[in-house]
What does this fold into?
Amino acid sequence: MPRILLLAASLLLGACAAHTPVPQTPPALVAPLPLSLQIQREQAQVRQDWLLVVQREGSALRWSLMDPLGIPQARQLLDAGQWRNDGLLPPNAEARELFAALLFALSRSDALQAYPAGSWQQLNDDQRRLAPDWTIDYHGPVDFTLGKTGLNYRIRALNLEESD
It folds into this structure.
């Protein structure tokens, strides 16, 4: 019995340690809020399209993920470095991880010090890494791919005006 408890405790600690980090206060972003993003998720050659709206609500950031018909898939608030459910949708751990990785990807380079030391790397102007295993490849400030083993997201802004 003690071995089972020890195994369960170490699995629980391992799961906690593997979460994508978020800063205590939202960092400066590369685009103004509210921000609407087109997300294409691909895993095992299956593709899904989503719409994500990120907006400020007081000191918190509200993340609302919808399918192409506008049906909510996940709604979360990030406040003081903690996620909490927003609305009646069930918890969605995959969405929280995606939102945490997106916050990092959308953060300006000069704001990355808000993240825990050792949790990220700026590889070059076009690529970053975030613990535990996210890689971001930039094609533009709000046009990038975000991925980890076997799972990729293509992110594009929907509401940014092009400047000449």
User: Anything to note?
Assistant: Confidence is low (pLDDT under 50) at residues 4-17. The helical segments are 2-17, 93-106. Residues 24 and 81 are 4 Å apart (CA to CA).
